[in-house]
Write a structure and sequence with these properties.
Elements lengths: L1 H16 L1 H4 L8 H21 L6
Helix pairs in contact: 1-3
């Protein structure tokens, strides 16, 4: 679980620091709406990684 939290924190920092580089504004969307969608996807992705079952290898 410790490794998951380390990865989650790194992904959070990278995802927010590079938000302008990874986002593309779709026509018809406001910039604020698009930022909110990106943040929601980032939260969902990180939460899924933390909640995932342990891999046994």
């Amino acid at each position: 679980m410790h490794q998951r939290w380390v990865i989650a924190s790194e992904l959070t920092f990278q995802g927010l620091a590079n938000i302008d580089n990874v986002m593309t504004i779709r026509s018809g969307s406001s910039q604020i709406d698009h930022y909110q969608q990106y943040i929601n996807r980032l939260i969902d992705f990180i939460a899924g990684g933390i909640a995932a079952d342990e891999c046994s290898r």
